[in-house]
Write a structure and sequence with these properties.
Elements: E1 5-9, H1 15-27, H2 32-35, E2 43-49, H3 52-64, H4 67-72, E3 82-88, H5 94-108, E4 113-118, H6 129-150, E5 154-162
Parallel strand pairs: 1-2, 1-4, 2-3, 4-5
Helix pairs in contact: 5-6
Protein name: Carbonyl reductase
Family: Belongs to the short-chain dehydrogenases/reductases (SDR) family.
Organism: Endocarpon pusillum
């Protein structure tokens, strides 16, 4: 099924990422994206996660258990405008990043994505060389590589949003 608008949210199987996916589906009918195109065929949101079973479970929970989405009839299956699909993505893995970019390009074409929300990241316990190295590799270098792969996929007026939190902060001092 063709969609007028396409987006992706990384690290979306729980927490902030999952909430972003839910809100995108809920808010789409009132958004400038939808209102700018009266012939809109809806919004497809790719919920991504590094763990397939958790990502698929998150999509299932939105379709089957989310009272907010059901009540508002936000999803196409209920007569709304949004669909949500899972796609694996581990921003620590170059092949995984390129795999998602290639998939989006193959399914939707060049410069066909409206937005990408970079939310994926890790927060580790403790503070030592391994924590610093792993956190930087994922939260900085992985996000940078994902950004570089996804930017060419964006429509001319598309958006790439980077989400961060204090959980990934590399500092020994307390908040």
């Amino acid at each position: 099924m063709p969609y007028t608008h396409v987006g992706a949210v990384t690290g979306a199987n729980k927490g902030i990422g999952l909430a972003i996916v839910r809100q995108l589906a809920l808010q789409y009918p009132k958004s400038a994206l939808h209102k700018s195109n009266p012939e809109s065929q809806g919004l497809l949101i790719y919920l991504t996660a590094r763990d397939n079973s958790r990502g698929e479970a998150a999509v299932r929970s939105l379709y089957e258990e989310d009272a907010q989405l059901k009540k508002s009839k936000a999803l196409k299956k209920d007569g709304g405008w949004a669909d949500i699909k899972f796609h694996p993505l581990d921003i620590r893995d170059t092949r995984s990043i390129r795999g998602l970019a290639d998939y989006l390009r193959g399914e939707h074409g060049e410069r066909a994505v409206d937005f990408v929300v970079n939310n994926a990241g890790i927060a580790m316990d403790g503070f030592d060389n391994n924590v610093v190295k792993t956190t930087l590799e994922c939260n900085y270098y992985g996000s940078l590589e994902a950004t570089q792969e996804f930017l060419p996929l964006l429509k001319p007026n598309g958006r790439l949003i980077n989400v961060s939190s204090m959980l990934g902060k590399l500092n020994k001092s307390p908040l």
